[in-house]
Write a structure and sequence with these properties.
This protein has a single domain, classed as TIM Barrel (Alpha-Beta Barrel). Helix content is 28%, strand content 24%. It is built from six helices and nine strands. Bound molecules: iron/sulfur cluster (SF4). The site of iron/sulfur cluster has 13 residues, from loops.
Length: 199
Amino acid sequence: MKIFVNSFYYPIYTLGPGKRIGLWLQGCSIRCKNCISPHTWLITPKHEIEIEKLAQEINFFPSDKLTISGGEPLDQSQNLIEFLKLVRKNKKDILLYTGYILNEYIQKNGRLWNELKNLVDVIIDGPFIWGKETKYIWKGSENQKMYILNKKLLPIYKQYKNKTKNKKLQIIEYDNNLFLVGIPYQKDYYRIIETIRNM
Ligand code: SF4
């Protein structure tokens, strides 16, 4: 089985607590206005990778903390589930971003959710809504919510749930390009893009 991947990187520090692995899946059908990652929307054959190979790469990194974003990971839910089954043993803190509203996704995808809920620990849900600024870290707009599914991780995550400081960004080099990792304030979004363009 294959999965569509944009990129993966270790270490990242700006999408979840601690020193983490970042995995960005490719393909998004939601298409939020002013999405910070439009390069992850379209799927092409070059994004396809065998699930076993990806799991091997992700398991290789010395961290049990994994953040999965995109693109829209739940647009390929079944592939994602099969991938997660291969890394779950080694990854004890899996944070998943989705642009879908979690309750709506659950209502429409009960069978998938029954599997997925045991394979991820924390979910941040909801589309990016331009104009709904948020001060909370790891979120792009006010509507997005954090669900801590794994109660063992409550002591760690609950201190961040309402955290409003340290909305940090990290710059990484991947495949000869520079990428921003993290979610800026909306008010800074265009300033950052312009600064990078003029570098
Ligand atoms: S769901 Fe995420 S990747 Fe898709 S358009 Fe919205 S912000 Fe961008």
